[in-house]
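re: ur question from earlier - yeah i can do the single chain one, its not a big deal. heres the input i used so u can compare w yours
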Amino acid sequence: MKTVLTCTVNGIEHTVLADTRDTLLDLLRDRIGLTGTKEGCGNGNCGTCTVLMDGATVNACLILAFEAPGRDIITIEGLSDGGRMHPIQEALVAHGGTQCGFCTPGIVLSAKALLDTNPQPTEADIRHAIAGNLCRCTGYGKIVEAIAAAATTARES
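and the output i got, formated as C-alpha cells:
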C-alpha cells in the first residue's frame, strides 16, 4: 500500500509516495534520487548504507521509510559545501583511504558522527566508530589515518 510521506533529508523537505515496505534506503535512492547511499548486503552487516538520523549512524537498509518523518536525515550528498568535499572526504583522498569507493559514503558518515561528538578521538575510538563499515579493499589503516588527520585539521581550524 502506498501513502504520502514527508521527510527532511539534507535540510530539504521531500514529499514522496512510499510503500509501507520501503526502507529508508529505498526512500533515499528510489523516491528522492540520492544514490550516494549504497546497498551492499541489505541486512545491516556491511554499513555501506550508513546515514545519519538525528546525528546518529543508522543502517538505512534496516530502517523503515515511515520512521523518517520528523527526523533529521543526512546522507553523503548533504556533506558537501558549495560543491567542495567535506574535510573527512578530503582527508580520505589525501591519505589514500579509498580504493573502490563503494564503502566510502558510509565510512565518511560514521567518521562524521564520531568527530561531531568526539573531536579528539584515539585510534581505538576511530576503529570502534567504523567497526560497522565493511571495507574489502583498504585494510582500514589508511582510513583510520585519514580520520585522525581530519580530526586534527578540524581542531586546528
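DSSP finds five helices and five strands in the chain. not sure if urs matches, ping me
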